[in-house]
Write a structure and sequence with these properties.
It contains 16 helices and 23 strands. It is an alpha+beta fold.
């Protein structure tokens, strides 16, 4: 009980986690739950109160054993809350970004979006452009409610509930929202169009505490009354933090979970291609980061399901060689509207004995495509869910023999980034992690070339359904 600890509250699209760290960032425990969606009017939305009750219950258990001096927050992107600060209430539920059934009138939104060469936000499906969500949500509010509304980006919403302090942090603003202008380095004209110009709290740095935990939560959880709350940030950017150093060339970081997000600060923004789901993110320093992505975790699960496999199945070298030799392929995209091939319809050629191996090979090929699109040339670091799939990592290393690939601890990439925020002014040492040994196969290059050639010849697109 004498040592202070850091609690990371990580709200991912698929799972919500509480990760307990000691003061040097070593993980002590992880608790998680599924992030469920409530399919009720006015639109599908996140179970905010369910998450909150779970957070309080689990935090109380942790606080009984450890002194928690800090809470850091990370969340997925494309989510925000319209709140009535004075009455401490949500004006509307926090929308699930996969909701697609917008009314016809929402089509007017496309006329209001800023140009890609200013926002570097590609036109995305459903509500992945946060501006589209807000355009619709604001139409559901009365004049009085719009007057009271404050816009809190998702991490800031949770920080507000913990501290009562409303803030804004840049990484959630600059991730395919349509709300940021990279040319002027300020909010885009869309913010004014939506009537939100004076409804966004002041910007704060991710490493600046917003305040201490509110008293009623001390009583409910037994947490230390001086527990400091940090403002929270976009989860992929949290995984990038530990590689931000003025004394070393930053690597390409591949953050993996529901989404696979490849970020390379060395890539010029003018090389981004909107149609390939390439975009700009902003790191905690306010610097733009060229990004390419696809819904990798979700596609991995989809391929396993289609082939009768389980994501927990074991894999063998024999299984890999078998698929390479038989030239069994999976072609994108299994989740429409995102990734480098958003209009293509995913399909599988052949019948693999081990579907997880096919999903793994497919994932390595797709990540390789992202890296090619980013013109990645230096060190590569993989963090998150896919870092635990050593076969995937070794296949990717074989596909990119001129680059070194490293694995960051697959369970704590985001958490370690949050821990570094807490000690931001301490001297930072950049550690790339475990170096990956490339997979040995004389057939992989031929397989990859044939996959790409067949992919370019495949004219089947989503409209063919």
């Amino acid at each position: 009980m004498n040592n202070d600890h850091i609690l990371v509250f990580d709200v991912g699209k698929t799972n919500v986690k509480l990760i307990l760290l000691n003061q040097v960032g070593h993980q002590l425990s992880t608790i998680n739950k599924s992030n469920t969606i409530i399919n009720e009017p006015p639109y599908p939305h996140y179970d905010i109160e369910g998450i909150w009750k779970w957070f309080l219950s689990e935090t109380k258990k942790v606080a009984n054993k450890y002194r928690i001096s800090t809470i850091a927050i990370s969340t997925h992107g494309a989510a925000a809350a319209l709140v009535d600060i004075e009455n401490s209430t949500l004006l509307l539920p926090v929308m699930d970004y996969e909701f697609e059934d917008y009314p016809v009138a929402i089509g007017d939104y496309d006329d209001k979006r800023p140009d890609f060469n200013c926002s570097f936000s590609p036109k995305l499906s459903a509500g992945l452009n946060l501006g589209r969500q807000l355009f619709y949500q604001l139409s559901l509010l009365s004049d009085d409610e719009r007057e009271k509304a404050t816009l809190l980006f998702y991490p800031a919403y949770w920080a507000w509930r913990l501290s009562t302090i409303a803030t804004t942090e840049i990484t959630s603003v600059g991730c395919h929202t349509d709300l940021w202008n990279f040319k002027t380095n300020r909010f885009s004209d869309l913010v004014t169009e939506l009537g939100l110009k004076d409804k966004i709290p002041a910007m704060i740095k991710a490493w600046q505490p917003v305040g201490i935990i509110k008293k009623e939560l001390v009583q409910q959880t037994g947490i230390d009354e001086n527990c400091v709350i940090f403002p929270g940030l976009h989860d992929s950017n949290a995984g990038l933090i530990q590689y931000l150093s003025p004394n070393s060339l930053p690597p390409t970081v591949i953050s993996t979970g529901t989404w696979v997000v490849a970020m390379d600060p060395k890539t010029p923004l003018d090389t981004l291609v909107e149609e390939k789901d390439m975009l700009a993110n902003i790191n905690i320093m306010g610097e733009p980061i060229a990004t390419a992505r696809y819904m990798g975790g979700r596609e991995f699960e989809k391929i396993c399901a289609l082939t009768g496999a389980d994501v927990c199945d074991k894999m063998s070298t024999h299984d890999i060689h078998s698929i390479l030799e038989q030239e069994i392929f999976a072609f994108p995209s299994f989740i429409s509207g995102s990734g480098p091939y958003p209009e293509k319809k995913g399909n599988i050629s052949g019948s693999p004995k081990n579907g997880k191996v096919l999903a793994t090979i497919y994932s390595a090929l797709m990540i390789n495509e992202l890296l090619n699109n980013l013109q990645s040339s230096g060190n590569i670091v993989i963090e998150g869910r896919f870092a635990g799939n050593r076969t995937l990592c070794s296949l990717l290393a074989a596909l990119r023999p001129n680059q070194n690939i490293f694995i960051q601890n697959e369970t704590t990439g985001i958490a370690e980034g949050c821990a570094k925020l807490v000690h931001w002014h301490d001297k930072q040492i950049v550690r790339l992690g475990e170096k990956v040994v490339p997979f040995q196969s004389c057939r992989l290059d031929k397989y990859a070339s044939k996959w790409r050639r067949k992919l370019s010849q495949n004219k089947q697109v989503l409209d063919d359904k």
